[in-house]
Design brief:
301 residues, single chain, mainly alpha, two-stranded parallel sheet, 11 helices
Length: 301
């Protein structure tokens, strides 16, 4: 196979550029409105940075040279996929707050109820894992690389699966809340199954995607080595994201437990105070009756 120089030009398709600008413009407008009316609490700089980071991930995946390199190097295509599946959704959802979502919060909850089983966390797990495995079937993967319309559909599925999956863990407005150990099961079951796909690609004895086998070698990567690198990127990314997410979920669970304990302590203090007041009033009335002379006439009115 002949070697070739990598094409590192930017992809300037109007669709992704319009989406990036729209997401940035709508959010910044709402963020500034909340800052003016409600103060910084509901629209912090951290939220803004997270949203901008998510939009930047989309721009890197769909506009930067990574999009052009994805047609030349399998490993770059995998980088594009994990940006759309995990990093962009995580940061975009982390940029949201209840105050920012207030105009659409009721609509979101109504939509969740209307979707029924589709809005259940179990569906998000199956959808996330299934999308990754199905789109890496060689015939479908090669088809996406050969036809731009199918490639756009593939990216749409990845982004949708990522948003739905991370929504159940990170969204400030959702109808179903994962409690107890359910977030851990939710996370581990998903990342392990997707990580297994990465391990399979890493250690497959031969290249299984004909599209890259018939492309000129870029950076001296043989198709099988390129596939192994792509699989390693997937497996390592899934492990790192799972580890960071589990640590975050653990810290969040501790915080929720502390807040629940504080609410219980305040409730008990209020009950003790109310009980003490009632007991004091009863004791005062009893003492007054005891001090009164048994034969004394009632006070004149």
């Amino acid at each position: 196979m002949l070697a070739a120089t990598a094409d590192t030009s930017f992809s300037l398709a109007p669709g992704p550029i319009l989406i990036v600008l729209l997401l940035l413009g709508v959010y910044v407008r709402r963020w500034r409105q909340v800052r003016r009316t409600s103060g910084p609490r509901g629209a912090t700089w951290t939220r803004l940075a997270a949203w901008v980071g998510g939009v930047l991930c989309l721009a890197i995946a769909l506009i930067s040279p990574i999009d052009t390199l994805a047609d030349q190097v399998f490993a770059m295509h995998m980088v594009q996929h994990v940006l759309l599946l995990d990093f962009a959704p995580i940061l975009l959802i982390a940029g949201l707050s209840k105050v920012l979502l207030r105009p659409v919060a009721r609509t979101v909850l109504d939509l969740e109820r209307a979707l029924g089983p589709i809005s259940h966390p179990a569906f998000a797990v199956v959808f996330y894992v299934g999308i990754m495995w199905v789109w890496h079937v060689p015939a479908l993967y090669d088809l996406a690389l050969e036809h731009s319309g199918v490639h756009v559909l593939e990216h749409t599925f990845f982004m949708s699966a990522g948003l739905l999956y991370w929504w159940h863990l990170l969204s400030p407005v959702r109808g179903r809340h994962l409690t107890g150990l359910s977030p851990v099961v939710y996370m581990v079951s998903t990342k392990v199954f997707v990580g297994l796909l990465g391990i399979f690609l890493t250690f497959a004895p031969t290249s299984i995607y004909s599209f890259y086998e018939h492309r000129p070698q870029v950076w001296g990567l043989h198709a099988s080595d390129d596939q192994a690198l792509a699989g390693a990127i997937m497996a390592i990314e899934q492990s790192i994201v799972m580890g960071v997410a589990l640590a975050y979920l653990f810290v969040r669970a501790l915080g929720e437990a502390d807040r629940a304990q504080e609410r219980e302590d305040r409730y008990l203090d209020a009950m003790d105070a109310a009980t003490g007041t009632s007991a004091g009033a009863g004791a005062g009335a009893g003492a007054g009756a005891a001090n009164a002379s048994p034969g004394a006439p009632p006070p004149a009115v």
